[in-house]
Amino acid sequence: MFSLPKIPPMRRVIGLMSGTSCDGIDAAAVMISGSGSTLRADLEHFVCVPYSHETREKILRASEMTAPEIAVLNFTMGELFANAALQLMSEMQSENFDAVACSGHTICHLPKENATLQIGEIAMIASATGLATIGDFRVADVAEGGQGAPLVPYADWCLLRSRSTPRIIQNIGGIANCTVLPANCELADVRAWDTGPGNMILDECTRILTDGEKQFDEDGVLAAQGKPDESWLRELMHHEYFFRPPPTSCGREEFGAEYSRNFASDGKKRGLSTPDILATATMLTAHSIAHSYEKYAADLLKGNNCEVILGGGGAFNPTLRKMLQARFAPHRVLRHEDFGIRSDAKEAIAFAILAHETLNGAPSNVPSATGARRAAVLGKIARGH
Q1: Cis status of the peptide bond prior to 9, with omega within 30 of 0
Q2: Distance between terminal CA atoms of the chain?
Q3: Based on the domain organization, do 83 and 223 belong to the same domain?
Q4: What global pTM score does this model have?
Q5: Could you tell me if 228 and 279 are in contact, meaning their C-beta atoms sit under 8 angstroms apart?
Q6: Quick check: is 2 in a domain?
Q7: What is the CATH number of the domain that holds 94?
Q8: Of 7, 21, 139, 323, which has fewest CB within 10 angstroms of its CB?
Q9: Cα-to-chain-centroid distance, residue 312
């Protein structure tokens, strides 16, 4: 029988993350101490290992695969995650790690059906690295009646809560999600949900409209040259997802390839240029985030001192940041870098924190965010050598 190790004063964990953008695997080496309100985490090294075009296409069509194809892809992804961890260890010239945390890659997320599926076999990672590997974090929350997402709020609370300043932590990956941290909040005070599309529609439309020449609108350059179609935007905001009260989570089922193909096609039918379509897609992300705050976080926006802290790939898009700042003035729109945290490494750090707490035997879901009946220790453990 596998027993949990004695809690050390510090633990060095490799966090592995693959998000809905399907651009690659983020690997972060994180030194972590404490637990809960005393937890501290410091990033030591970070690397992003991009997916090959072939792998990315396989991941994107995973929902259409047969069971045998998914089984093969599960082990393929496990090998890719393992290789990312090994690359990180090689670059650091160190094998002195305590554990690996793997988010897995979500290929199906059905919160209404109380079901979710992540692939990336953790036994492959444990075998390749020799380290205890913790993965499949979402299912324990789902078993408790939760949506299994979002899971980052626990790390947000540990790292970014403030005694005096209310904060909204906004991650903008493929999907956008927020964590609401009232001033001087306890974990039970935290709220969190997916606000809707992040970069997913913008990235896919960029690929479609440039015939694959560009994989994303780097620095928001193309969108900056266009003008959002305001009347179309009002129509887009009638999507049923924007009327679901938290706790809510979404994914490619709502805003994936089919939605993006229709988005690009509808833009052309309206006679819009490529920059105009991409400007509208960017504004949809900004508008849906603001709409979500106005409906479900209005208490934090009453004063003038709320801080909106951006993370994820969207934090590097100046056009999107400008749109968000215009919506939230006079509140400040900041980035994780303003707090000494790399935006692109944040989610990998978060999963490292979840794995650390799993090894501590401590719950790390946030029931007020996921809708779970109770707190739960997350993840499954594959033993190393």
Answers
A1: no
A2: 15
A3: no
A4: 0.92
A5: yes
A6: no
A7: 3.30.420.40
A8: 7
A9: 7
